[in-house]
C-alpha cells in the first residue's frame, strides 16, 4: 500500500517569511495529492491539491510542486500570516480512491 | 456547498456499551464515505471505506466486528463502535466525496469529528 512521509513535524517562522513542507510517497500508482489544513478542534480543510499530470499549481500565497520521478511533493506558503498557524497534512492516493495521510506538520507563524 | 456533518460531536459512554456515530453529506450525494481515527496531535488513520449499498472495506488491522459501518443511503453513513473499551477513546472523523448525478469530484470533504470517551 501507499506510504506517505511528511517533514518537518514542526515548523516555526516569522510573519512574512515563507514556509515549506515536504512529503514523499511510495506508490507510483498514486496520482492525486491534496493538502489539508486543520486548526485546533476543527475539521481538516482542503487548501490545494495537485494531480500527476501537472508539476506545479498555485493559488494566491499557496503553491504545490510535484516531482513524480522522485516521488515527492511540497507545499509552499509565502508571506505567512499568524492565521496560517495550524496543522498541515499532505496525502497521496489515486483519484477517486482512498488517501494515505502524512504525519502532519505543526506550523506556527509568529507575529 | 460540500458540507458534511457528524453527530454527536461528543459522547461519553461506559465500557461495554455501543455507540453509533452518524456522518451526513448535507448538500450532495456520496456513494463513498471514509471513516478515520485521529489520536491527539497525530495524523488521520483510515479505518474503512464506506460504500453505499454494499459492504464497507476495512483497512488492515481494523476489526470489522467491532467497528460496524452501514451506508444505507447516498447521504448517510454510520459507524457503530460495539462493546466500547477505554482504548477505543479517540476522535473519529468521516469524509465524503460528491458522486451524484450533477457534481462529481475526487475531493474528500471532512465532517467536524466525534470525540468518543469510554469510561
Describe the structure in your own words:
The complex is a heterodimer of chains A (111) and B (119). With 111 residues, chain A is mostly beta strands. Helix content of chain A is 0%, strand content 57%. Chain A has no helices and eleven strands. In chain A, strands 2, 4, 5, 9, 10 and 11 form a six-stranded mixed beta sheet that branches. Chain A has a five-stranded antiparallel beta sheet with strand order 1-3-8-7-6, with no helix packed on it. In chain A, a hairpin with a 6-residue loop joins β4 and β5. Chain A is globular and about 40 Å long. In chain B, the strands form two sheets. In chain B, strands 2, 4, 5, 6, 9, 10 and 11 form a seven-stranded mixed beta sheet that branches. Chain B has a four-stranded antiparallel beta sheet with strand order 1-3-8-7, with no helix packed on it. Helix content of chain B is 0%, strand content 50%. Chain B has strands at 4-7, 10-13, 19-25, 32-38, 44-51, 57-58, 67-73, 76-81, 90-97, 109-110, 114-118. Chain B is built from no helices and eleven strands. Chain B has 119 residues and is mostly beta strands. The relative contact order of chain B is 0.33.
Write down the overall mean pLDDT of chain A.
95
Number of strand elements of chain A: 11
Structural class of chain B: mainly beta
Shape of chain A: globular
Q: Please name the two chains that share the biggest interface, counting residues whose Cβ lies under 8 Å from a Cβ on the partner chain.
A: A-B, 21 and 20 residues
**H/E series of chain A:** EEEEEEEEEEE
Question: Alpha-carbon distance between the termini of chain B?
Answer: 37 Å
Q: Write down the overall geometry of chain B.
A: globular
Average pLDDT confidence of chain B is: 92
> Main beta sheet of chain B: strand number and arrangement?
7 strands, mixed
Largest beta-sheet details of chain A? 6 strands, mixed
Radius of gyration of chain A: 13 Å
Amino acid at each position: 500500500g501507499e506510504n506517505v512521509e511528511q517533514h518537518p513535524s514542526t515548523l516555526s517562522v516569522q510573519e512574512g517569511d515563507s514556509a515549506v513542507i515536504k512529503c514523499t510517497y511510495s506508490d507510483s500508482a498514486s496520482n492525486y495529492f491534496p493538502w489539508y489544513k486543520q486548526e485546533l478542534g476543527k475539521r481538516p480543510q482542503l487548501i490545494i491539491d495537485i494531480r500527476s499530470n501537472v508539476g506545479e499549481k498555485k493559488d494566491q500565497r499557496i503553491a504545490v510542486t510535484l516531482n513524480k520521478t522522485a516521488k515527492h511533493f511540497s507545499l509552499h506558503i509565502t508571506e505567512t500570516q499568524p492565521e496560517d498557524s495550524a496543522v498541515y497534512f499532505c496525502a497521496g492516493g489515486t483519484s477517486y480512491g482512498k488517501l494515505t495521510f502524512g504525519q502532519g506538520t505543526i506550523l506556527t507563524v509568529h507575529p | 456547498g460540500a458540507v458534511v456533518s457528524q453527530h454527536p460531536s461528543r459522547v461519553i459512554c461506559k465500557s461495554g456499551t455501543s455507540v453509533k456515530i452518524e456522518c451526513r453529506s448535507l448538500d450532495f450525494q456520496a456513494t463513498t464515505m471514509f471513516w478515520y481515527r485521529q489520536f491527539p496531535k497525530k495524523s488521520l488513520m483510515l479505518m474503512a471505506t464506506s460504500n453505499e449499498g454494499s459492504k464497507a472495506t476495512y483497512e488492515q488491522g481494523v476489526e470489522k466486528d467491532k467497528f460496524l459501518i452501514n451506508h444505507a443511503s447516498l447521504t448517510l453513513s454510520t459507524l457503530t463502535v460495539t462493546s466500547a473499551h477505554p482504548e477505543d477513546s479517540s476522535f473519529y472523523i468521516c469524509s465524503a466525496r460528491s458522486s451524484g448525478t450533477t457534481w462529481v469530484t475526487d475531493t474528500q470533504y471532512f465532517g467536524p469529528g466525534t470525540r468518543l470517551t469510554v469510561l
